[in-house]
Amino acid sequence: MIDIQSLCQAAKAGHIKSQFQLGSAYQHGRGVERDLTEALHWYTKVAEQGGVESQYRVGLAYYYGDGVTKDVKRAIQWFTKAARQGHVDAQYRIGLAYYYGDGGNQDHTKAAKWWHKAAESKTIKGHRKSERRLGQAYSYGIGVKQDYTTAAQWFKKAARKSDQIAQYYLGKAYYYGNGVKQDVTEALLWFRKAALQGNIRSQYELGYAYYYGSGVEQDYEVAAYWHRKAAMKGNIRSQYELGKSYANGEGVQQDYAQAAYWWRKAAEQGYVKAQYKLGTAYAQGEGVEHDDAEAFRWRMLAAEQDDDRAQRSVGLAYMNGNGVEENETAAIHWWTLAANQGNQEAHKDLMVIGNYPTDRLGETSEPMDETTMPPFN
Questions:
Q1: Where are the beta strands (DSSP E) in the chain?
Q2: DSSP tag of 374
Q3: For residues 252 and 245, is the Cβ–Cβ distance under 8 A?
Q4: Model confidence pLDDT, tens digit, residues 131-146
Q5: Distance between CA 277 and CA 288 in Å, rounded?
Q6: Which has the closest alpha carbon to 126: 178, 170, 162?
Q7: Would the pLDDT of 375 be above 60?
Q8: What is the pLDDT of residues 331-357, one digit of tens each?
C-alpha cells in the first residue's frame, strides 16, 4: 500500500525519486484518485532535473493531450531530450515524428537515423518496433536506399521478438524471395505466427494459401476458418473469399444468403470483385431478392473501377432495359470498354449488333465488302 502522505511530503521537499513515484501514482490512480494534470506536474519537475523516463512521459502527455493541451512540437522537444540520453522508446517516437511530419517537419532520412539508434541499442538488445520500421524503410526505400536483404534482416530481428507485423512482412519476403531465398513453407510458418497473434493480413494469406493449395495441401475448411477470422475484422479480400466459399459450398455448407452477406461487406468498402458478385446475386436472386435495379447499381460501381465483367453486364442491362432505361449508345460504350480489356463476350456482343471494334488479333473494324474480299480460286 502506497503511503501517499509521506510520498507527498518527500516530493515537496525535492526528493526526485518520490516526485517520480508520486507522478506515477497520479497517472495510474494508485493510492490517489487518477489525475493526469497532477501526474504531469510531478513528472515535469523530475524531467527538468534530467530524469530521462520523466522526460519521455512528459513528451507522451503533450503528444496525446493527457492532462494538458495537446502540443506535438513540445512533445517532440521532450522526446528529443530523452532520446539524446539513450531512451529507446523516445528515439522510436522521434523517428515516427520525422516520418509522419508531426510538428511540421517531415524528414524520412532523420526518421531512419533515429530508428537505427534505437534498433542498435545494446541496452535492450534492439528495439523491436524500430527494427520493424527499419525493415519497412529498407523494403520500400523510404529514407534509405532500397535493399531487400537488409529489410529482411531487420524484419527477422523484430519477428523473433514476436512482432506480428514484422512476422507478416518476413512471411512476404520468404513468399516472394525478396532479400531471402524463396521458401513458401517458411513464409507460411511466419504467417501462422502472426495470424495466431491476430494479424489480419496474415490470416488472409493463410486463407489464400489453403484455398489454392499454395505451399500446403489444399483444404477449403481451413481456408474458410482463416478467412472468417480476417473477414470479421474487416479485411475486404477475406470477406470476398469467404463469400465465394459460401456460394460454392467450399469448406462450409453452401449458403447464398451468407455469400451475399459477406460480398456486401466487402462491396460497401469499395472492393470491385465483391461489387460485381453482389450485383450478380441480385440479378439472379441468389441469397437476396431478385432486383434488377440493385444488380445494375452494384455492377455499375464495379464497371466504373474497370472490371471488364461488370462493364459487359452493364452493357447488357442498357441494351435490354434491365434495371435501367434502354440505351443502345450506352450499351455500346460499356461493351467497347470491356472489349478493349480483352473481354471476348463483350466483343461478341458488339459483333452481333454490327459494331466491329479492332481487337488484339488485328481484325478489321469494318465488314468486308466485295472489293476487299479475296478472289475465288
A1: none
A2: P
A3: yes
A4: 999 999 999 999 999 9
A5: 12
A6: 162
A7: no
A8: 999 999 999 999 999 999 999 988 655
pTM of the model: 0.86
CA separation for the pair 376, 91 (Å, rounded): 84
Buried b / exposed e across 156-177, counting CB within 10 Å, b at 16+? bbbbebebbbbbbbbbbbbbee
Mean pLDDT, range 299-320, rounded to an integer: 98
Burial 310-321 (b: 16+ CB within 10 A, else e): bbbbbbbbbbee
Q: What SS3 state is found at 8?
A: helix
C-alpha cell at 245: 466459399
Identify which of 247, 238, 245 has the alpha carbon closest to the alpha carbon of residue 271: 238
Between CA 119 and CA 113 the distance in angstroms is 10
Which stretch of 133-137, 205-209, 356-360 has the lowest confidence by average pLDDT? 356-360
The separation between the first and the last C-alpha atoms of the chain, rounded to the nearest angstrom, is 109
- 112 Cβ contact list (under 8 Å, min separation 6): 95, 134, 137, 142, 143, 144
Q: What is the identity of the amino acid at 56?
A: Y
Residue type, 211: Y
Which amino acid belongs to residue 349? Answer: D
**CB count in 10 Å sphere of residue 146:** 12
**Distance (Å, whole) CA 242 – CA 244:** 5
The three cell numbers of residue 120 are 542498435
Contact 289, 327 (CB under 8 A): no
**What burial letters (b/e) apply to 204-217, b meaning 16+ CB within 10 Å?**
bbbbbbbbeeebee
How many alpha carbons lie under 13 Å from residue 118 in its C-beta half-sphere? 29
Grid cell listed for 45: 519537475
Q: Which residue has the cell 481487337?
A: 359
Burial annotation 258-286 (CB, 10 A radius, 16+ → b, else e): bbbbbbbbbbeeebbbbbbbbbbbbbeee
Amino acid identity of 142? I
Q: Which three cell numbers stand for residue 4?
A: 501517499
Cβ atoms of 229 and 202 closer than 8 Å: no
Please report how many Cα atoms fall inside a 13 Å half-sphere around the Cα of residue 197, on the Cβ side: 17
> What would the pLDDT profile of 147-200 be if each residue is shown by its tens digit?
999 999 999 999 999 999 999 999 999 999 999 999 999 999 999 999 999 999
